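INFO  loader      accepted 1 record
INFO  loader      residues=156
INFO  predictor   begin
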Amino acid sequence: MRVQICAIGRIRKGPERALLDDYLKRFERAGRPLSLGPCQEIEVDDRKAGSAAEQARLLTRALPGGATVVVLDERGDMHDSRSFARLLATQRDSGCSDLTFVIGGADGLDPAFRDSAALALSFGKMVWPHMLARVMLSEQLYRAATILAGSPYHRD
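INFO  predictor   done
INFO  writer      dumping tokens
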């Protein structure tokens, strides 16, 4: 199952980019034997759309055809790392070929776009900058792959 992170905005060189690249590389190595990944990053230029509705239009165009869409939103379901790993495995085992995680801009996601997603996930009630949300998601993808592989990276 291919995975995408589709996000409003760009991450330039710096500590967030280094962390994101490191975790995505780790996920690719750990996930490959499990039929997970690779993870493609799709960055949508936020300068081309000011409103959430315009951003939703650009995000929709950027999504792979037929992808199962998971939005990151503070109103979404919270998972611990093991249940997130089970979510990935369930999607993979049910025949999902593309699982796309969507991260909105500073004003969040358009409500209609958010409501059209298959799933909504939350990293808690706090709001996170989109750069950190991407890093946190990439780490959780890697952690999920190690959990599914039985690796000792995750400790309960």
